[in-house]
Amino acid sequence: MTDNTSSLDSKIAAHVQHAYDNAAAFRARMDAAGLTPADIQNRDDLKKLPVFSKDGIIARQQADPPFGGMLAVPMSEVTHIFMSPGPIYEPAGQDAPEMREIAATAYKAAGFTADDVVLNGMSYHLVPAGMLLDRALTSIGCTVFPGGIGNSDLQLKVMQDIGATAYTGTPSFLALLINKANEMGLDFKTHFNIKRALTTAEPLFAPTRQLFIDNGVEVVCNAYATAEIGFIGINLDGGMAMQLLEMPVVQIVDPDTGEEVGPGMAGEVVVTNFDETYPLIRIGLGDLAVNMDPNPGGSMQQERAIVLVGRTGDAVKVRGMFVHPNQVNFAAQQVPGIQKVQGVVTQTDSRDQLTIRATLADGVEGSAPLGEGLKQAITAVARVKVDTVEFVDEIPAEAPGMVDERDWSA
Question: For 367-390, what is the mean pLDDT?
Fold first, then answer.
């Protein structure tokens, strides 16, 4: 543990120095915060640097195209330029070892080996996903068919002809392939040989995961990743928790203060990579996640997990805790008879009040026990006590999941 921590701290210090020396935009961030590389020598020191948002990256690139002063190597060392929605331009070097090795770790955890023939269903153009996954798979010896997206009839033929044993790509495309094969009279489980799947870029819902298992996929892994960072966490058991990978550095922070939140609390996912070409240090991804740490202060990153609950812009802070509509909705789904819910935050005598408005399924009547059950379910998920439950006739379809009715002008 100590050796690992010391190694990580040294790596962070060296990376910050490299970014400061070679990326003008990062140097400007440090200077604006009154910091020098000597001030950031370990993981804990990262909190001294204000979080930089993805919107900030877009603004910098628009002001100083193409990379906004964030490139940390000569342009001659850039082999590819990708583009993600935003738009955000992402330079890639010849090898990009960090992102490749992280992704390779995820594939190994999902049981991929050198014996696998893999259909890669991620796009190889514009965005970096297809090439990143390709490099990771070939680095562990897999044989890859670069299928990309679409052409489902052709891809099914290819999967049969080459004897594909594994799939990587979006869960929706694998589901489409399975359903199309079955519609064509081909039993996917017996006519194809896909035994492993690592999906990403979309949520993997329980019914879709079960579809894969029912059709012969023995190992299903879902990965949390972004175009700029690569893989961050994986899930192998079908639950909500994403087990963090060893790298990049992941911090779950209060969006208002930048301080890391404690176990069971929600905060923004903030990451630091170690890509010398394009160093991204303390980048806020805009995703809200619950921090799960079995041994606060003593665990390694790969022993921690996060539960993604939505985007930070949709969350409302209640008594110091961020509450996201997805948390409220998930909890409500565990209570029979509840149809739709909305959280409303008000303030009385300087104390936040959380009220849950709820509509009921046909034939169900509101009652104190039902309201108490809903209170307990939401409190367990969001870690914030619900003060009141109001049963209402209607919550408009377009109504936000959380409403802040506090008077901030006072």
Answer: 91
